[in-house]
Design goal:
The protein is mostly helical. The protein is 77% helix and 0% strand. The chain folds into two domains: 49 residues, no CATH class; 57 residues. It is flat, with a radius of gyration of 33 Å. It binds zinc ion.
């Protein structure tokens, strides 16, 4: 194991989460390598500091306010409700508009593909055209 691999596994080693053979390889490396030993000591000190921080508690009203906001989000009318509120004529108009948009997209997409194909087939065509030459 090199130093990069050791440092990648350092927190798991400090937490005692590694299998014995891997933990021994890291222990052996740390005994030989001052840089990794320093890194391990720093990580250990940070973990000790974090362990001694006072526990944080959410404000008393946090849970109640969160659940109220969640319920308010659920009660908002969605797309299905909006669709049901439309008359048959309005639903037809929405479908027609959507279909027209899809057709425009399909037609424009086809033209873009044709244009790109032409450019690939003759990459100098636009240069010739700018000089008034049409080979
Ligand atoms: Zn090292």
């Amino acid at each position: 194991m090199d130093c990069v691999e050791i440092r990648r596994r350092l927190d798991a080693w400090l937490d005692g989460e590694l299998p014995a053979p891997e933990a021994k390889r890291i222990s052996d490396h740390i005994k030989r390598c001052p840089a990794c030993r320093l890194e391990a000591q720093g990580n250990r000190q940070l973990m000790d500091l974090l362990d001694h921080l006072p526990p944080l508690a959410a404000p008393a009203a946090f849970s109640r306010r969160t659940m109220q906001a969640f319920r308010a989000g659920l009660e908002k009318p969605g797309m299905a409700e909006w669709w049901r509120s439309l008359s048959l004529a309005m639903r037809s108009a929405v479908c027609g508009t959507a279909l027209a948009g899809l057709l425009c997209g399909a037609v424009l997409g086809t033209r873009v593909i044709q244009f790109e194909t032409a450019v690939v087939a003759n990459p100098y065509q636009s240069v010739y055209a700018s000089k008034g030459i049409y080979p």
